[in-house]
Amino acid sequence: MKIVSLKGQISLITGLHIGGGDDVMKIGGIDNQVIKDTLTNKPYIPGSSIKGKLRSLLEWDSKVAGYNNGNPFGSNCLNLIPQNDMEKAQNLIKLFGDSASESKFGFTRISIGDCFVSSECCELTLSEAKYENVIDRISGKAQHPRQIERVPAGIKFDYDIRIKILDGDDESALKGLVTRGLELIERDYLGGSGSRGYGRVEFSNKTNWC
Protein backbone atom coordinates (compact mmCIF):
# COMPACT_ATOMS: atom_id res chain seq x y z
CA MET A 1 0.00 0.00 0.00
CA LYS A 2 1.05 3.59 -0.59
CA ILE A 3 -0.58 6.91 0.18
CA VAL A 4 -0.65 9.78 -2.31
CA SER A 5 -1.70 13.33 -1.46
CA LEU A 6 -3.02 16.40 -3.22
CA LYS A 7 -2.55 19.78 -1.54
CA GLY A 8 -3.57 23.26 -2.59
CA GLN A 9 -5.87 26.16 -1.85
CA ILE A 10 -9.60 26.73 -2.14
CA SER A 11 -10.28 30.31 -3.27
CA LEU A 12 -13.74 31.75 -2.65
CA ILE A 13 -15.16 33.40 -5.76
CA THR A 14 -18.40 34.25 -3.95
CA GLY A 15 -19.37 34.19 -0.28
CA LEU A 16 -19.46 30.74 1.35
CA HIS A 17 -21.91 29.51 3.97
CA ILE A 18 -21.46 26.20 5.77
CA GLY A 19 -23.69 26.20 8.84
CA GLY A 20 -22.36 25.93 12.36
CA GLY A 21 -25.44 24.61 14.16
CA ASP A 22 -25.53 27.32 16.85
CA ASP A 23 -27.17 26.44 20.15
CA VAL A 24 -27.94 30.03 21.16
CA MET A 25 -29.85 32.65 19.18
CA LYS A 26 -29.04 36.20 20.28
CA ILE A 27 -31.56 38.99 19.80
CA GLY A 28 -30.43 41.16 16.92
CA GLY A 29 -27.66 38.73 16.06
CA ILE A 30 -26.88 36.51 13.10
CA ASP A 31 -29.69 34.05 12.36
CA ASN A 32 -27.50 31.45 10.67
CA GLN A 33 -23.80 31.42 11.51
CA VAL A 34 -20.95 29.64 9.73
CA ILE A 35 -19.05 26.80 11.36
CA LYS A 36 -15.92 27.95 13.23
CA ASP A 37 -12.87 26.33 14.76
CA THR A 38 -13.39 26.30 18.53
CA LEU A 39 -9.72 27.08 19.19
CA THR A 40 -9.31 30.09 16.89
CA ASN A 41 -12.94 31.14 16.28
CA LYS A 42 -12.09 31.33 12.58
CA PRO A 43 -14.29 29.71 9.92
CA TYR A 44 -13.17 26.49 8.28
CA ILE A 45 -14.47 24.06 5.67
CA PRO A 46 -15.12 20.58 7.11
CA GLY A 47 -13.51 17.80 5.11
CA SER A 48 -16.82 15.96 5.29
CA SER A 49 -18.53 18.78 3.38
CA ILE A 50 -16.08 18.47 0.50
CA LYS A 51 -16.17 14.67 0.54
CA GLY A 52 -19.97 14.56 0.50
CA LYS A 53 -20.21 17.03 -2.36
CA LEU A 54 -17.46 15.25 -4.27
CA ARG A 55 -19.19 11.89 -3.95
CA SER A 56 -22.62 13.21 -4.90
CA LEU A 57 -21.40 14.98 -8.04
CA LEU A 58 -19.22 12.04 -9.12
CA GLU A 59 -22.16 9.65 -8.77
CA TRP A 60 -24.18 11.83 -11.12
CA ASP A 61 -21.23 12.22 -13.47
CA SER A 62 -20.66 8.45 -13.51
CA LYS A 63 -24.35 7.74 -14.22
CA VAL A 64 -24.93 5.75 -11.02
CA ALA A 65 -26.95 8.27 -8.99
CA GLY A 66 -30.46 7.08 -8.17
CA TYR A 67 -29.77 3.35 -8.30
CA ASN A 68 -29.84 3.06 -4.49
CA ASN A 69 -33.09 4.90 -3.70
CA GLY A 70 -31.34 8.16 -2.83
CA ASN A 71 -28.65 6.52 -0.70
CA PRO A 72 -24.94 6.54 -1.62
CA PHE A 73 -24.11 4.12 -4.41
CA GLY A 74 -22.71 0.75 -3.32
CA SER A 75 -21.90 -2.75 -4.50
CA ASN A 76 -25.47 -3.89 -3.89
CA CYS A 77 -26.42 -1.97 -7.06
CA LEU A 78 -23.64 -3.16 -9.37
CA ASN A 79 -25.90 -5.72 -11.04
CA LEU A 80 -28.01 -2.81 -12.34
CA ILE A 81 -25.12 -0.96 -13.98
CA PRO A 82 -24.52 -1.24 -17.76
CA GLN A 83 -21.25 -2.99 -18.54
CA ASN A 84 -19.68 0.07 -20.18
CA ASP A 85 -20.15 2.02 -16.90
CA MET A 86 -18.99 -0.81 -14.64
CA GLU A 87 -15.31 0.09 -14.26
CA LYS A 88 -15.99 3.66 -13.20
CA ALA A 89 -18.72 2.47 -10.81
CA GLN A 90 -16.33 0.04 -9.15
CA ASN A 91 -13.65 2.70 -8.78
CA LEU A 92 -16.21 4.98 -7.12
CA ILE A 93 -16.93 2.28 -4.55
CA LYS A 94 -13.21 1.78 -3.93
CA LEU A 95 -12.66 5.52 -3.51
CA PHE A 96 -15.55 6.27 -1.14
CA GLY A 97 -16.16 2.90 0.48
CA ASP A 98 -19.02 0.43 0.53
CA SER A 99 -21.87 -0.01 3.00
CA ALA A 100 -22.10 -3.75 2.32
CA SER A 101 -21.06 -5.78 5.38
CA GLU A 102 -18.98 -8.21 3.28
CA SER A 103 -17.56 -6.05 0.52
CA LYS A 104 -14.85 -7.24 -1.85
CA PHE A 105 -13.70 -3.65 -2.42
CA GLY A 106 -11.93 -3.13 0.88
CA PHE A 107 -11.89 0.02 2.96
CA THR A 108 -12.45 3.63 1.90
CA ARG A 109 -9.44 4.96 -0.03
CA ILE A 110 -10.00 8.72 0.24
CA SER A 111 -9.59 11.00 3.24
CA ILE A 112 -10.10 14.77 3.20
CA GLY A 113 -8.90 16.91 6.08
CA ASP A 114 -10.68 19.97 7.44
CA CYS A 115 -9.63 23.06 5.49
CA PHE A 116 -8.42 26.00 7.56
CA VAL A 117 -7.91 29.62 6.54
CA SER A 118 -4.63 30.09 4.64
CA SER A 119 -2.00 32.05 6.54
CA GLU A 120 -2.05 34.86 3.96
CA CYS A 121 -5.71 35.55 4.79
CA CYS A 122 -5.66 35.31 8.59
CA GLU A 123 -5.58 39.08 9.06
CA LEU A 124 -8.40 39.74 6.59
CA THR A 125 -12.09 40.09 7.45
CA LEU A 126 -13.32 36.49 7.62
CA SER A 127 -17.03 37.06 8.12
CA GLU A 128 -19.83 39.11 6.62
CA ALA A 129 -23.55 39.33 7.36
CA LYS A 130 -25.80 39.15 4.31
CA TYR A 131 -29.44 40.19 4.66
CA GLU A 132 -32.01 38.03 2.91
CA ASN A 133 -35.79 38.14 2.75
CA VAL A 134 -38.86 36.86 0.97
CA ILE A 135 -40.75 39.13 -1.46
CA ASP A 136 -44.54 39.18 -1.12
CA ARG A 137 -45.79 38.46 -4.65
CA ILE A 138 -48.81 40.77 -4.31
CA SER A 139 -47.51 43.76 -2.35
CA GLY A 140 -43.94 43.56 -3.59
CA LYS A 141 -42.69 44.18 -0.05
CA ALA A 142 -39.86 42.34 1.64
CA GLN A 143 -40.89 39.99 4.45
CA HIS A 144 -39.12 37.87 7.07
CA PRO A 145 -35.70 39.59 6.92
CA ARG A 146 -32.85 37.49 8.27
CA GLN A 147 -29.06 37.68 8.47
CA ILE A 148 -26.93 34.93 7.00
CA GLU A 149 -23.27 34.81 7.94
CA ARG A 150 -20.83 34.07 5.10
CA VAL A 151 -17.12 33.87 4.59
CA PRO A 152 -16.53 36.65 2.04
CA ALA A 153 -15.19 36.26 -1.48
CA GLY A 154 -11.41 36.37 -1.74
CA ILE A 155 -10.66 34.25 1.34
CA LYS A 156 -8.53 31.13 0.77
CA PHE A 157 -8.43 27.83 2.62
CA ASP A 158 -5.76 25.11 2.53
CA TYR A 159 -6.91 21.64 1.50
CA ASP A 160 -5.25 18.23 1.84
CA ILE A 161 -6.69 15.17 0.09
CA ARG A 162 -5.13 11.72 0.46
CA ILE A 163 -5.75 8.39 -1.26
CA LYS A 164 -4.62 4.96 -0.12
CA ILE A 165 -3.53 2.88 -3.11
CA LEU A 166 -3.84 -0.87 -2.57
CA ASP A 167 -2.45 -3.70 -4.68
CA GLY A 168 -4.65 -4.07 -7.73
CA ASP A 169 -6.01 -0.52 -7.60
CA ASP A 170 -5.88 1.64 -10.71
CA GLU A 171 -3.98 4.59 -9.20
CA SER A 172 -4.44 6.79 -12.25
CA ALA A 173 -8.21 6.20 -12.31
CA LEU A 174 -8.66 7.00 -8.60
CA LYS A 175 -6.62 10.19 -8.92
CA GLY A 176 -8.57 11.11 -12.04
CA LEU A 177 -11.89 10.71 -10.22
CA VAL A 178 -10.81 13.14 -7.49
CA THR A 179 -9.56 15.72 -9.99
CA ARG A 180 -12.78 15.38 -11.98
CA GLY A 181 -14.80 15.82 -8.78
CA LEU A 182 -12.98 19.04 -7.87
CA GLU A 183 -13.68 20.37 -11.36
CA LEU A 184 -17.37 19.54 -10.93
CA ILE A 185 -17.50 21.39 -7.59
CA GLU A 186 -15.98 24.43 -9.32
CA ARG A 187 -18.79 24.29 -11.89
CA ASP A 188 -21.43 23.80 -9.19
CA TYR A 189 -20.99 25.14 -5.64
CA LEU A 190 -19.85 24.25 -2.13
CA GLY A 191 -21.89 24.69 1.04
CA GLY A 192 -25.43 26.03 1.26
CA SER A 193 -27.57 28.41 -0.82
CA GLY A 194 -25.77 27.64 -4.07
CA SER A 195 -28.88 28.50 -6.09
CA ARG A 196 -28.56 32.05 -4.70
CA GLY A 197 -24.97 32.39 -5.83
CA TYR A 198 -23.16 31.24 -2.70
CA GLY A 199 -20.24 28.85 -2.68
CA ARG A 200 -18.54 29.41 -6.02
CA VAL A 201 -14.98 28.22 -5.47
CA GLU A 202 -11.76 27.45 -7.29
CA PHE A 203 -9.23 24.73 -6.39
CA SER A 204 -5.57 25.27 -7.11
CA ASN A 205 -3.16 22.43 -7.94
CA LYS A 206 -5.83 19.88 -8.91
CA THR A 207 -3.46 17.44 -10.65
CA ASN A 208 -0.09 17.65 -8.87
CA TRP A 209 -0.22 14.50 -6.72
CA CYS A 210 2.74 13.55 -4.58
Question: From the coordinates shown, what is the CATH architecture?
Answer: 2-Layer Sandwich
Low-confidence parts lasting 5 or more residues at pLDDT below 50? 23-29
Percent helix range: 10-25%
Order of helices and strands: EEHHEEEEEHE
Report strand order across the widest sheet.
3-7-1-8
How many individual domains? 1
Quaternary state, please? single chain
Q: Can you identify the CATH class?
A: Alpha Beta
Average predicted confidence as pLDDT = 88
CATH topology: Alpha-Beta Plaits
CA radius of gyration is: 20 Å
The outline comes out as: globular
The largest β sheet comes out as: 4 strands, antiparallel
Number of strand elements: 8
Count up the helices: 3
Strand content: 15-25%
Distance between the termini: 15 Å
Structural class: alpha+beta
Domain CRISPR type III-associated protein: 10-202
InterPro entries: CRISPR-assoc_RAMP_Csm3 (IPR013412), CRISPR_Csm3_endoribonuclease (IPR052216), RAMP_III_fam (IPR005537)
Protein name: CRISPR system Cms endoribonuclease Csm3
Organism: Campylobacter vicugnae
Please tell me about this protein's structure:
Residues 10-202 form the CRISPR type III-associated protein domain. Belongs to the CRISPR-associated Csm3 family. Keywords: Antiviral defense, Endonuclease, Hydrolase, Nuclease, RNA-binding. It comes from Campylobacter vicugnae. This is CRISPR system Cms endoribonuclease Csm3. By secondary structure, the protein is of the alpha+beta class. It has one domain (2-60, 108-203): Alpha-Beta Plaits (2-Layer Sandwich), CATH 3.30.70. 20% of the residues lie in helices and 23% in strands. The protein has three helices and eight strands, in the order E-E-H-H-E-E-E-E-E-H-E. The protein has helices spanning 47-61, 86-96, 171-187, and strands spanning 2-12, 44-45, 110-112, 115-116, 128-135, 142-150, 156-165, 201-203. The longest helix has 17 residues, at 171-187. It starts with a strand and ends in a 7-residue tail after the last strand.
